[in-house]
Amino acid sequence: MLAQERYEQILSILEKDNSVKVSKLTKLFNVSIETVRRDLEYLEKEGLLKRVYGGAVLKEVNSKQLSFQSRKKEYIEEKNEIAEVAAGFVTEDQSIAMDAGTTNLEIIKVLKKKFERLTILTNSLMIANELADMDKYTVILTGGIIKNDEFSLVGAIAESNISNFNIDTAFINVNGISLKDGITDCMFEQLQIQKKMIEVSQKVIILADSSKFDTVSLLKICDLDQVNMIVTDSKLKQNVFEKYTRNGIEVVNK
What we know:
The protein is built from ten helices and 15 strands. The protein has helices at 3-17, 22-29, 33-45, 68-72, 76-87, 102-114, 125-130, 156-162, 188-200, 238-246, and strands at 19-21, 49-52, 55-58, 95-98, 119-122, 138-141, 145-147, 152-154, 167-173, 176-178, 182-185, 201-207, 219-222, 229-231, 251-252. It has a seven-stranded parallel sheet with strand order 6-5-4-9-12-14-15. It is globular, with a radius of gyration of 19 Å. Keywords: DNA-binding, Transcription, Transcription regulation. It holds the Pfam family DeoRC.
């Protein structure tokens, strides 16, 4: 079992039971006590749990782990701002890759009003449904396994299909941006989809509201030098904006 798979199971147990013992995890994963301790140390460093004698407890309920429907209701004003700005980097007849994040759904609503012909590659069932009335759009679903709570398609089939395309611009939703740790997220199933979309795209635009800056989530998507720009909202603090731009990162907001 991969470390990332163990992390996911540990967090699932904590969400259900609020605590977990090292002894239980060693039996569940069939690994040594030292391996489990390293896993717990890593998750504690990421701020996802608190280690206690003999195990760990849930540190807090993190909004980054909320369902799609819950996240959809968060930061609505900021997402609308990001959508308007991001749409400005699209031109007629472009090909665009979009992951299943909630901000991409808002971008699609803006694009529908501005463009007659686009090619959209996505693993989002919500985006595909939103574009069902756009006859001149070419909408390509990645295929794969349906992840019901995220209204998305994931897995090896989706990843393999993405590799067949050459895309102009990818819009990627993320949960963390850090000068040290790069671009991060917490969705295990979406991670490889995001990586593949970045890999096949000539231009990569990261979408993140201002609260995501200087934060690190569980899974690394890519380094900052693999992205062309970050689109955020107008609430980003000036000192944070200047810190990133001084380091050669293009940050754009309204």
